[in-house]
Amino acid sequence: MKPDVTGSPRLDRAAEAVPPHAWFGVSAIFHYLGPSFAVLLFPVLGVLGIAWLRIATAALVFAPITRPWNTIREADPGTRWLLIGLGACLAVMNTSFYLALDRLPMSLVAAMEFVGTIGVALYGLRTRRNLLALVMTVIGVLILIDVKWASDPLGLFWAALNATLFVGYIILGHKASEGGASRGVERLGAAMSIAFIMLMPVGFMAAAQAFGMPLVILAGMGVGICSSVIPYACDQLAMSRLPRASFALLLALLPASATIIAAIVLVQIPTLQDLLGIALVMLGIAVHRPAGI
């Protein structure tokens, strides 16, 4: 029998004791809190350097807890392909996300992330109430986008690539969560190690330039914990209890949280129109009910 390497009783009890929406709320906050600090480090570490340090930190934190080498060695072929796919998705998604943030406002990049999840949210919606919730959240996100695109085609390309891979993250992450929250976190740790190996030749040299600056490295590691450890672990705790369509709809919170956090950290002040969009998104989330509730 495969040993339990993640202390599953505690993780599974935590996932059951706390409403899944609460876990997602924590994830939504940290999903953009870390990147907002990362933007401040771009001039020092560079985009690729901070992307590599983010993944490296997450892999380092997860390794002693999840023992990814055991997960990969003992996984069946199908699970190994899942881990490789999720690892590749995390590596490219996080890098393209930072490359987009280097050129576009955070609220726009976040809104584009949600656009790709609409199809996932539509699949599995079975009630008029949930369809109404989806309509309200989509209108709210469109207001946040303001249906106007930046004049930076390269930035939009990276944002579109990030949004596409974000859908892949939802599908693969939800698949990884099958079997319980602890199993999902275990597989997440293995996928993060794979992502770290994939990004090694891309961002290591950029990050290495700051190895003589301990405070900068610590700040970069803080970005990794805020961006990849806390939110992705909370995602697994939420995914283990929510249908995929419900989780995808909750992702509408991300543009709203990105707008608020960008205003606080990056002084990207939202307009009244932005606040209206956030209100509609919040209302849509309040109206929605997962299957079985």
Automatic annotation (TrEMBL):
Name the keywords, alphabetized. Answer: Membrane, Transmembrane, Transmembrane helix
Membrane-crossing segments per the record: 37-61, 81-100, 106-124, 131-150, 156-176, 188-207, 213-234, 246-269
Task: Describe the location of the EamA domain by residue ranges.
Answer: 154-287
Membrane found in the keyword field: yes
Which GO cellular component term is one of those annotated? Answer: membrane
Task: Output the Pfam families linked to this UniProt entry.
Answer: EamA (PF00892)
The molecule here is called: Inner membrane transporter RhtA
